[in-house]
Amino acid sequence: MKQIKRAASVEQPFREPDISAYQRALRDRLLAAPVVPVPEPWRPVFEHTYGVPVGGLLGIGFGTHPDSGHDVVMAVSHDGHGLFDAVTGEKIARDRDPDPEDSTPDAVADLTCPGLGPITGSRVRIAGLFGGGLHTTTADGWTLEVVTPAWPNDRVLLSGDGGLPHSGPHGEQWWHIFHSDYSELRAVGFSPSGQTIAVATSSDISLWTRRTDHSRTDADA
User: Fold this and answer.
1) Contact predicate 24/32, CB 8 Å
2) CA distance 146 to 84
3) Residue 205 and residue 50: Cα distance in Å, rounded?
4) H/E run at residue 74
5) What is the sign, positive or negative, of the torsion defined by CA atoms of 103, 79, 197, 106?
6) N or C: which end of the chain has fewer CB atoms below 10 A?
7) Is the omega angle on the peptide bond into residue 41 within 30 degrees of 0, that is, cis?
8) 3-state class (DSSP) for residue 180
9) Long-range contacts of range 139-145, CB-CB < 8 Å, 24 or more positions apart?
């Protein structure tokens, strides 16, 4: 009797389940929300919409200026290290040629780089391309979230309602403050003090502060 070979069974490709009506409505609401200015008491630190350019940015970290008490933001890039005052926006230190063993945070277990300028002698935890993270909430109820309703473009949301699903209207309890549709997002978060918001992409840094001009003057006096 002639043998009939049975064809090998072909596994059916895994099919993702359809998103629910609730998920679709949430995605559509996020897609429809335009970028808006940050609410009071926050204000942008830099004049340009997308902050200051930092080519080849790898990550950022926070420190505290020992004299003024301002938050400072350390930027680590392929072009070296830089330090910005997070209240005035001034670049207060620059190292174009850091030691190779400390030039990027992945060289050490805790993802740190040595501080520079006024924070020389400390080590700063860097969040970005190699991992790590920044604070996503503040003690008084502000929240930052990264959402991607249209991959791969990330959107940064600031809210005072505890985070998603944001039941209230856009612009009242939650705000779409940054759309990374031109560069790769590196890090998003608050400073440990809760006074600064930082958004870093592969090409720039944007900062917002809620320090007032009066408090800045007092600190610098």
Assistant:
1) no
2) 23
3) 7
4) strand 71-77
5) negative
6) N
7) yes
8) strand
9) 139/194, 140/194, 142/190, 142/194, 144/188, 144/189, 144/190, 144/197
CA distance 7 to 213: 77
DSSP output for 58-71 = EEEEEEE-TTT--E
- In whole angstroms, give the CA distance from residue 29 to residue 47: 29
pTM of this structure: 0.88
Cα–Cα distance list, 77 to 70, 73, 91, 165, 182 (Å): 22, 13, 15, 35, 18
How far is 81 from 129, CA to CA, in rounded Å? 15
Can you tell me whether residue 211 is helix, strand or coil? coil
Task: Give CA–CA dist 101/103, Å, rounded.
Answer: 6
Distance in angstroms (rounded) separating the CA atoms of residues 149 and 125 = 29
Tokens, residue 160: 């005072």
Q: What is the rounded end-to-end Cα distance, in angstroms, of the chain?
A: 102
CA-derived radius of gyration, the chain:
22
* pLDDT band at 217; cut points 50, 70, 90: very low
Q: Is the peptide bond before 149 cis (omega within 30 degrees of 0)?
A: no
- H/E element holding 201? strand 196-201
Tokens of 112: 């740190």
Residue 221 has pLDDT above 50, yes or no: no
